């Protein structure tokens, strides 16, 4: 055998054969640049296209593979969402593949729950174990006592999980993401009658007004919006776009703003309506847009009477002059764009506040216009309020309604304990986790069926609100699986097989085949005739990228939709005992916590604080001085819900009546780099209800601080107080 | 400045008005160049190994406070203070204007690091190992440095070499934009532009003539190859 052929068989091209027990066929990898028949050249790297599924943005990636090993992840230049660019997390996905603490094969619990004692078992045994549990439910006609918990899925995986649960006979599939934009879907439907998410044309706008939308960090599609932001700033010949940020904490996104408006938490909706009133009163609104949307200035003004400038200034704590100035700038610069983000949405009055911001867009006539806002091209369907569903699942679990829970992802870490999820889960007799690292959920499981790493997986990824075009990114395994793991969907299919009788529901041998089948349906009739060639081409370029801009129905005010009228904000915890507002925000490195096991991300200095390998609480210098808290001191943060100790960071960009803690640390498991590091601020969050709906108050919980000691053990990569030699950069 | 001995003069422009401080470039650099993993203790001692860091500046007081980010990497000075102090010529200037570092010649005196005004040279105080199977991520194009040597940003010289070889094979010059270091390649905001300063038409050369340009610690006379563009300019609300 020639060396080259040998490499080909043993290394990369063999990925398909060894994938998993239930897969067949010698599937070849399709490189991005080199024609597939050239094979492996020792010492020469190839690039394979795939997709990043670390966050829902779904960027396209190219993986550099050298002698069967993935070496580096780069952006796919042909992908319409990220155009060759990638965020820090996307790069670090490589370390998920090679993480030294991956679960190498199925594990069965052998000690008390949570003790971390497991024994290794074979796939046959483990699948039989799960099948036994499920068969028992079938026998007892109790199939609805199975719960499936996953992050918000998309693409073929939705089809598969839906079919599995339906065929099995349980309606209990919860798809919950802490950072999922359900709230934006709901608001958009109520404002404009459309279920999809908005796509903002940041690149072409001249005035960007963000109400807590942190698009550089995590909001919707950070790489896409980071790219657009660069274009808005210096990408055009004569225009430099202006950026105003509203929010009590200067986020990383807010740090790029020309003007920062630290409005009081919960007052953002009133601020938007105050601006709206001023724009209408001074006749700065777009008459055409009002007419098209069936609105009249006089009527609107009457409805907005309560939002006069003095009152809004008092509510927000911002000077009248500044509010008026920004409102005028926003209305007289065309195109101008307003975005609403998580920090606004997760207030007690969030839903109406988001709609108030959306109304600003309507007033200045930038719906469906360059530099304005359009319906996005992808994810039209998606959960609208998975938090309500979460609460009812928890209630059912607490009542002992479930016998088996199958869990993908790490909800034990990423769901606020105030929901009672963690305790309720403990009442489920049999818990299966599909985690590939021993995360907090896997620690509680009775059986772990480790999933492949992303770079070993097949899949399709429909990017979230990243483009107006239809984009379906494909994932192909770029390396042979390192361990004895199996893809989650393949396990579901194997389970369906084992349960028998209903296998007709799954006419595919493997998930890979199913994926191919869905893609065949998607490509259109002409392409279907020679689908093999098309399939290879799709894998080569990284997915199906269609240009069909402008075919979507544009935004228009939903007939009969009421005017947003955000109520007085309410907070968990009374002002006397808990004098400070708490903001819990996703950090740029850890997202909802899934980035914590990757050392490159732990080691990435947080851009705003330069802290590494830890979590912290941010305090305004004045507040800190009043309380005698110094940089790095250990501080106890207490909310009505819980308490935790954290090192303090003196943070000049936050309101004095507010503190902030980044999300993502405080894992009990998750491997050597994440375990026992920092704290998880979700334990502080209380629930609030606006009368109709209960929601996590992750921007509406109050806390108090107590200084404990000087020993915070905070490590920063830069000067702790930040460099003050700004003359270096001439600002 | 030295005489031109090569048709290439590699340089970089970083537009601070575009940079959002997102840190994508930092991880890209670490991934491309096998930069060591440093644990908390090591960083606490000031022995972080990043070749590219984002300096963060707070200016003013609440509520009139501003933040600016400044990505700092080796400035590839034409008159580099690190070069003449190296007793074994491990720090040297290459004909393309790069400030190179010969790892297997370095004996670890750290004179170069002391003499660099930008604090961009990092010393391997500890052996860095990659627990299996994490070592699989190591790039075969770059040496894995051992304890006791000084290392630094090379403008991803391995990429430059590859591009030059390919161009030479085809009997042409490297095209503008053909070679990008990992940081520039990944930067979502396209804040980092890399190219041949010797070609006045290249994007990097054109940007380096912007009225917004400045260089770090220019008064020291180091003549860096990295230009920064400050914020503002153009029509503005
Ligand atoms: S934005 Fe999300 S999908 Fe894109 S590279 Fe980063 S983590 Fe991956
Ligand atoms: S990747 Fe670009 S935007 Fe992000 S920090 Fe680096 S230079 Fe700035």
Explain this structure.
The complex is a heterodimer of chains A (731) and B (237). By secondary structure, chain A is of the alpha/beta class. Chain A has 25 helices and 27 strands. Chain A has 4 domains: 40-98 and 454-481 and 524-546, Phosphorylase Kinase, domain 1; 107-178 and 382-451 and 486-506, Rossmann fold; 198-375, Dimethylsulfoxide Reductase, domain 2; 580-728, Barwin-like endoglucanases, CATH 2.40.40.20. Chain A has a 7-stranded mixed beta sheet, sandwiched between helices. The longest helix of chain A has 17 residues, at 123-139. Chain B is an alpha+beta fold and 237 residues long. Chain B has 6 helices and 10 strands; from the N terminus they run βααββββαββααβαββ. Chain B starts with 9 loop residues before the first strand and ends in an 8-residue tail after the last strand. The relative contact order of chain B is 0.24. The mean pLDDT of chain B is 92. Chains A and B meet through strand 3, helix 3, helix 7, helix 8 and helix 24 of A and helix 1, helix 2, strand 2, strand 3 and helix 5 of B. One iron/sulfur cluster is lined by residues 19-25, 54, 71, 187-189, 191-192 of chain B. Chain A: InterPro entries: Asp_de-COase-like_dom_sf, MoPterin_dinucl-bd_dom, Mopterin_OxRdtase, Mopterin_OxRdtase_4Fe-4S_dom, Prok_Mopterin_Oxidored. Chain A: It comes from Geotalea uraniireducens (strain Rf4). Chain A: It is an enzyme of class 1 (oxidoreductase).
